[in-house]
Amino acid sequence: MDTWLIVGLGNPGPSHAGNRHNVGAMVIDELAARAGATLRSHKARAVASEIRIGTLPGGAPGPRAVIARPLSYMNESGGPVAGLLSFFKIPVEHLVVVHDELDIPFADVRLKRGGGEGGHNGLKSITKSVGTRDYLRVRVGIGRPPGRMDAAAFVLKDFSGAERTELPFLLGDGADAVEKLVTEGLEATQQVFHSR
């Protein structure tokens, strides 16, 4: 059974920890908690842990996966991702990137393989470093900024009070989507999450 690399995007440091832009990294923390795993420092400028992800039909543990958060800033995510793929000898077809998505309403999760980056600097950096856009994405909706607020400012703000009460459900959905994606495939997972 092949190994997967699941990377959650965000910016490093406590000042960014609650930002909307860090929701991908938060999903990785949720997956680590589910697996009882501790993310440890890796030479690829990331924190990572090897786990079994999800459960196969019949109850057997799911596939092997490396879950990771780059320690670089968002716009330099590509270096750590390429480094992890190389170190663990994982093909880019088994790369899953979990990231925030402005074009999806808050609390919705969508999945796709490939496509554009929609101005997302983390995705642009990964595409450049791995040499293809053809990797899997779990897109965690954070909604559009209110009024005339700049999108760049909006993603670097923490979730609102109302959003924070919903956040555990959103992170749970993000982690569920990752688990289903690696155990059952893209189409089956899209059918569940895109029909909500």
Describe how the helices and strands are arranged.
Elements: E1 4-8, H1 23-35, E2 40-42, E3 46-52, E4 64-70, H2 78-87, E5 95-101, E6 109-113, H3 121-130, E7 136-141, H4 151-155, H5 161-184, H6 186-194
Parallel strand pairs: 1-4, 1-5, 5-7
Antiparallel strand pairs: 2-3, 3-4, 6-7
Protein name: Peptidyl-tRNA hydrolase
InterPro entries: Pept_tRNA_hydro (IPR001328), Pept_tRNA_hydro_CS (IPR018171), Pept_tRNA_hydro_sf (IPR036416)
Subunit structure: Monomer.
End-to-end CA span: 31 Å
Structural class comes to alpha/beta
Low-confidence segments: none
Mean pLDDT: 96
- Corresponding CATH superfamily: Peptidyl-tRNA hydrolase
Shape annotation: globular
Name of the CATH first level: Alpha Beta
Protein name: Peptidyl-tRNA hydrolase
Keywords: Cytoplasm, Hydrolase, RNA-binding, tRNA-binding
EC number: 3.1.1.29
Catalytic activity: an N-acyl-L-alpha-aminoacyl-tRNA + H2O = an N-acyl-L-amino acid + a tRNA + H(+)
How would you sum up this structure in a few lines?
Helix content is 36%, strand content 20%.
Q: Would you kindly provide a written description of the structure presented here, covering whatever features stand out?
A:
Strands 2-3-4-1-5-7-6 form a seven-stranded mixed beta sheet, sandwiched between helices. The protein is globular and about 50 Å long. Helix 2 packs across helix 3 (121-130) and helix 5 runs antiparallel to helix 6. The protein is built from six helices and seven strands. It starts with a strand and ends with a helix. Strand 2 (40-42) and strand 3 (46-52) form a beta hairpin. The protein has 196 residues and is α/β, with parallel strands linked by helices. It has helices at residues 23-35, 78-87, 121-130, 151-155, 161-184, 186-194; strands at residues 4-8, 40-42, 46-52, 64-70, 95-101, 109-113, 136-141. GO terms for molecular function: peptidyl-tRNA hydrolase activity; tRNA binding. Its EC number is 3.1.1.29. It catalyses: an N-acyl-L-alpha-aminoacyl-tRNA + H2O = an N-acyl-L-amino acid + a tRNA + H(+). This is Peptidyl-tRNA hydrolase.
